[in-house]
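so i finally got all the pieces together for this one. its two components total, 686 residues if u count the protein bits. some of the lines might not be protein, just check the labels. i wanna see the whole assembly predicted at once instead of chain by chain like last time, that was a mess tbh
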Amino acid sequence: MKYEKIFLAHGTGGRETEELIKNLIIPGFTIKNVPNGVGLTQLDDSGAIPVGDSEYIITSIDSYTVDPIFFPGGNIGTLAASGSINDVAVMGAKPIAVMDSIVVEEGFPIQDLKRIIASMNEVFEYEHVAVLGGDFKVMPKGKLDKIIITTNVIGTINKNRKPILDSGIKPSDKIIISGTIAEHGATILALQSGIEALSEGLMSDCQPITKAMEVAMNTTTVHAAKDPTRGGLAQALNEFAEKSNLMIKIYEEEIPIREEVKALVEMLGVDPLFLASEGRVILAVSEEDAEKTVKQLRKNGFPEAAIIGEAVAEKPGFVVIETLSGGLRVINRPFGEIVPRIC
Amino acid sequence: MKYEKIFLAHGTGGRETEELIKNLIIPGFTIKNVPNGVGLTQLDDSGAIPVGDSEYIITSIDSYTVDPIFFPGGNIGTLAASGSINDVAVMGAKPIAVMDSIVVEEGFPIQDLKRIIASMNEVFEYEHVAVLGGDFKVMPKGKLDKIIITTNVIGTINKNRKPILDSGIKPSDKIIISGTIAEHGATILALQSGIEALSEGLMSDCQPITKAMEVAMNTTTVHAAKDPTRGGLAQALNEFAEKSNLMIKIYEEEIPIREEVKALVEMLGVDPLFLASEGRVILAVSEEDAEKTVKQLRKNGFPEAAIIGEAVAEKPGFVVIETLSGGLRVINRPFGEIVPRIC
């Protein structure tokens, strides 16, 4: 590591986070996998443990530190419930159980805690996810900014199915997104910038992506799936490109994005490809099944689902975008601070 | 809830934590179990999910906020690795995998992070626990005191064995402890009180209890097992008494405790029964097998293992101690602040 201290950028999910994980965390642990499972070696959205004959347990963990803790479209509880469900769902698993750990600052209002737990429960109840237990800790006043929630969701993969990995994309596969991008990131960015007026009409998209996964998996074989959270579409597609050893090419005019989000990012000079979604999934499916998959998604509650690009064998590891003006531009992983405490 | 805000005492694992969990957390969640599993309903050390034919997946979560983060006998990493392993082990499971989530304050020294990860790895490597993945977040300077680590450990229970629950104790069962008590609590208490001199010779007992569980399970049928962490022996035994609907009677003269710990608690006027151990296990086994179990423990690396008491059918829900002077005293669950950020 060339740094002596942790920077904010180490936590934004982009290039610096990856450097830290690759240089310090991965080499730091000796056993990175259970036999025939998915672990630190693959560094996918969740871990996988084979159990019994041909079944898998899928397990995810994330700590949520979002600031502000209440925002249009949800709160830290909605996010903590949905986010860890989504990490399990994108592996092709059905989420069944959760463990949660809540750490709050002394003096935290009980009413806020109730609201947050109610939001978590709303998600878990709708998704039929059982809350098996958890932890509750308190830090003295001034030692923690309000609250951190960590969730670990456990899912199962049906007999004879394998976990869906980021490395499964094949040349000529189409890239699909289940809805409009960057809404969670834009909402939090507007709130953090203190420009309340700008956040009008903005709302986080924070929600489980289980339904979209189910529709897609019932229509075709999903080659890869990922929720574009920290670091947005740019980070997620770069991980796809690197792990599948392919180039991903996307088309700006095909990317669904709301007018309110466009207005905000133009005013602030931020690239919406770097902003988090918390309720969308990117799918890689075969060229033949792509139209059919989008059609099914649109018919089943995802009217803005769209094919936004494709995988290409040449220039592996790169992500490029064909812009509205027809030019081609490389999309790098995001770096720098972007939006701290986005999730 | 009769309070409007969270107090420090809500996080110390004693009476207030339990009130909060029983009044706010448990009623807050609708689905508290997977079918035939162990969840919020039982509120045991971990959750249990049945998989395949007659196997169980056991899953634990805890967030570690200990202050100071480095202490004689270990650091927050040793604790985060051992603690969540222990919650799985006391259910009778073999820990196999872990997910970890690290949140640090901006400016946290990389060298400290390396030391902490090295300590976690030391535990995981020794215990053959695979690190499947995790999360890494950064909070801005001043928004978090140094670091919080959350670990989720997953274990498996062999075919035809059931999870060991707190409710499994039978009348006349003997209560065994695997070693001397209160060392982690006493060490952190001395450091937090700023009386360095007092901490001389004190050392946290923080370590996995898997070996002790293995020895006990190879010798007899363990009826209940628990690591006496937050709230110490007092809290753990009260949970045993309540969930097994029995009285637990212990004998002060039988409880193994180091001289250094005795000296500290006498000087500070703290009851050592309220202080955390982080590397001991309390076992309930049948009267017939109790001597044999202690003998095996002593022979296999636990020279201070001892029978400290027994379960009695009358006065269910109570814990009493026969003191050195021969008197009988009720041991309540701890309340108030005791030692904040003990783990």
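Chain B touches chain A through 90 residues (CB under 8 Å).
Chain B is about 30% helix and 25% strand.
anyway lmk what u think
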